[in-house]
């Protein structure tokens, strides 16, 4: 009947508005049962369970054998790690798989089977689940003793497919790869040519004393390629040229030319190409989000205009105010936006809303309210009014910053003076006395500000909350120090208790006062520009950070499988022989920082590196390249170089340049608009990050919106 149809239209409008708020696609089933399932799936509880499941299945790698549950990564000192019994992590993993099966089933049903076959991500989702479950069964069949677990490498996919922004980012990176490949090929040609020149320049001679360059770096083609590839990262500069430079200064020209052409020209050319491809990335993303929001709002308008109680009009469709109020009461949205829209509806004199009026009401979603601080207390006393004016003035805050600076300087001076003294020789009387003074000042400052501003207004400022919390912590620690060690006096030396004594904690917390200076950043125009650029970049880099986690995780798991059982303690009896061999060969600089005080050998006692160690190793390999020497050149198969070169290309070459490109785009956009910024004084709302490009965004036309709505696979419009 008409009542059932009206309820369906109301529920459809509620879901479409919630889709618009969250920038979700509206291409899903819109019947009554599907709408209930859809709202349940996107409820906070279900999404929290799904996020927790993804976190748990990714975290299993830190518990599974080889376990990362050790305090230190040094195999000489760490105790045997606890490895869970067979079936424990597998049971948790099965529960996670069941959640993923429910997730993919609900998603597939909601979008419809026709759309499912067009969705490559969902098909890949099902394939990953099938492979993972098959590997899980194989693992139990071997009683968890199998050497290779394919499903561990596939786990990051579950994180990737759950984020629409990560999918968009991956698609953008994929479109940039052809242009990047041309520069990478040019780098390879550059590396190959200079490798041949190096082998000709530093060929073996009769004089063994003059062949150090050949012996150490350019003995054969693989060693020569490796040496110059490492030089491209500057990790072995200037060590690689020292033997040749000692023989003849002119040899330095070769290395200088290689570094200038490779680092200054080709690597920066790669950055320029990536920046050119990503220049409109943020703008396109925001434009797409804006279109989804406008489409969701327009879809809600169209279904509400189909209500039986809406008067028929040959001119244009309209929506009754009562129907919209009914939708707003049931829709999950920010209370501020809901109240603002309801206020606008009450101020509206008409009973029917056109499409333009309907869309304009929901522009409140594009705004973020500037927080209104509670009013200051009104004192009747003339003396209290003067106190309120004095201690509520910004100059009083500046005085606090000066005092905090003096506190930092005094602590630094004392630490420098006592740096070379033995604990028994130090006299902490001076530092204890000045700490008492500064903490009393912070307490007095907090109380005076509360007196001037009132407790509610004082607490409404984040900087005051930080200062107040810090002051309370300092006061508690200082009182505890006096209770344990007594009051400061000449020759006062509080004893060290544990890793950080109470006295050390007081001094460390004092250093946090330096953050008081962050409050002056908005008053410094160019510093504020840099800081806001970084903050906005952090907000827009979540997708990039997620993909970086995926890459780290996949490479770490792959490294465990490839180099499993290759780490031996340094205390091994044959370690000294190994060191002697490397000194004679002089092929690599063997440092503990490269492999965390471990070395690799296939012939010695076997131990496994865990996920945490490999993640740390990859972080180091992204910056320096000594792992390539230690792991692949001397101790394992030379083909292991491919693994580390691939990681270096992805982390240092591609990913760092992507980050630089986004940083440049964000900063240049803000730099160009710094003079056109509107003053926020007198403006009630401030634009959100999604609409920081509001002046260059294009509003979708009515024709575009209606064309998209008519293409909806499950929604039949009346017009």
UniProtKB/TrEMBL annotation:
Keywords: Calcium, Calcium channel, Calcium transport, Endosome, Glycoprotein, Ion channel, Ion transport, Lysosome, Membrane, Repeat, Transmembrane, Transmembrane helix, Transport, Voltage-gated channel
GO biological process entries: calcium-mediated signaling; endocytosis involved in viral entry into host cell
Membrane topology note: Multi-pass membrane protein
GO CC annotations on file: late endosome membrane; lysosomal membrane; monoatomic ion channel complex
Occurrences of domain Ion transport (ranges): 53-278, 399-667
GO molecular-function terms, A-Z: calcium channel activity; intracellularly phosphatidylinositol-3,5-bisphosphate-gated monatomic cation channel activity; ligand-gated sodium channel activity; voltage-gated channel activity
Protein name in the entry: Two pore channel protein 2
Highest classification ranks of the organism: Eukaryota, Metazoa, Chordata, Craniata, Vertebrata
């Amino acid at each position: 009947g008409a009542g059932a149809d009206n309820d369906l239209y109301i529920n459809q409008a509620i879901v479409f508005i919630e889709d618009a708020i969250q920038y979700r696609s509206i291409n899903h089933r819109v019947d009554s049962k599907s709408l209930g399932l859809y709202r349940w799936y996107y409820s906070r509880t279900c999404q929290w369970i799904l996020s927790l499941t993804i976190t748990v299945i990714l975290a299993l790698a830190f518990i599974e054998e080889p376990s990362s549950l050790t305090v230190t990564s040094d195999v000489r000192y760490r105790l045997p790690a606890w490895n869970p019994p067979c079936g424990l992590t597998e049971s948790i993993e099965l529960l996670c798989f069941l959640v993923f099966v429910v997730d993919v089933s609900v998603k597939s049903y909601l979008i419809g089977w026709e759309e499912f076959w067009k969705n490559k991500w969902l098909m890949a989702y099902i394939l990953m689940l099938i492979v993972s479950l098959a590997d899980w069964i194989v693992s139990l069949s071997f009683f968890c003793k199998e050497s290779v677990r394919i499903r561990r490498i596939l786990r990051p996919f579950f994180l990737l497919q759950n984020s629409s922004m990560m999918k968009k980012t991956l698609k953008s990176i994929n479109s940039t790869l052809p242009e990047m490949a041309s520069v990478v090929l040019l780098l390879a040609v550059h590396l190959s040519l200079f490798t041949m020149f190096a082998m000709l320049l530093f060929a073996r001679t009769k004089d063994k004393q003059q062949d150090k360059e050949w012996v150490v770096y350019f003995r054969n083609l693989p060693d020569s390629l490796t040496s110059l590839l490492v030089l491209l990262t500057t990790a072995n500069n200037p060590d690689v040229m020292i033997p040749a430079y000692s023989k003849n200064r002119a040899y330095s020209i070769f290395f200088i030319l290689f570094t200038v052409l490779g680092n200054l020209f080709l690597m920066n050319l790669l950055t320029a190409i990536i920046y050119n491809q990503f220049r409109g990335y943020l703008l396109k993303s925001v434009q797409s989000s804006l279109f989804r929001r406008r489409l969701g709002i327009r879809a809600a308008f169209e279904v509400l205009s189909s209500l039986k109680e809406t008067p028929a009009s040959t001119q244009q469709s309209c929506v009754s105010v009562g129907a919209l109020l009914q939708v707003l009461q049931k829709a999950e949205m920010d209370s501020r936006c809901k109240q603002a829209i309801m206020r606008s509806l009450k101020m509206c004199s008409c009973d029917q809303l056109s499409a333009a009026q309907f869309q304009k009401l929901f522009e409140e979603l594009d705004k973020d309210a500037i927080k209104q601080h509670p009013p200051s207390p009104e004192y009747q006393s003339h003396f209290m009014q003067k106190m309120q004016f004095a201690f509520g003035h910004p100059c009083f805050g500046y005085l606090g910053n000066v005092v905090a600076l003096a506190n930092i300087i005094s602590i630094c001076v004392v630490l420098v003076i006592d740096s070379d003294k033995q604990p028994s020789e130090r006299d902490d009387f001076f530092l204890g006395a000045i700490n008492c003074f500064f903490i009393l000042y912070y307490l007095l400052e907090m109380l005076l500000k509360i007196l001037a501003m009132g407790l509610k207004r004082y607490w409404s400022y984040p900087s005051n909350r930080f200062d107040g919390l810090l002051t309370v912590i300092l006061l508690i620690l200082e009182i505890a120090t006096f209770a344990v060690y007594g009051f400061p006096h000449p020759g006062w030396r509080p004893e060290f208790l544990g890793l950080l004594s109470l006295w050390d904690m007081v001094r460390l917390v004092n250093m946090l006062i330096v953050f008081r200076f962050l409050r002056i950043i908005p008053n410094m125009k160019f510093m504020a520009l840099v800081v806001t650029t970084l903050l906005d970049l952090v907000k827009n880099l979540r997708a990039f950070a997620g993909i970086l986690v995926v890459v780290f995780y996949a490479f770490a798991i792959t490294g465990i499988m490839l180099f499993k059982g290759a780490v031996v303690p340094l205390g091994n009896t044959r370690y000294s022989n190994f060191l002697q061999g490397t000194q004679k060969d002089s092929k690599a600089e063997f440092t503990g920082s490269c492999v965390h005080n471990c070395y690799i050998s296939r012939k010695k006692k076997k131990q496994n590196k865990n996920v945490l160690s490999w993640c740390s190793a990859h972080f180091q390999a992204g910056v320096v390249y000594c792992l390539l020497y230690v792991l692949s050149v001397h101790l394992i198969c030379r083909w292991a170089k491919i693994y580390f070169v691939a990681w270096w290309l992805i982390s240092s070459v591609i990913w760092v340049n992507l980050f630089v490109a986004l940083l440049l785009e964000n900063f240049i956009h803000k730099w160009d608009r710094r003079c056109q910024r509107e003053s926020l004084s007198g403006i009630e709302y401030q634009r959100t990050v999604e609409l920081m490009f509001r002046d260059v965004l294009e509003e979708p036309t009515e024709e575009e919106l209606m064309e998209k709505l008519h293409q909806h696979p499950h929604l039949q419009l009346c017009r």
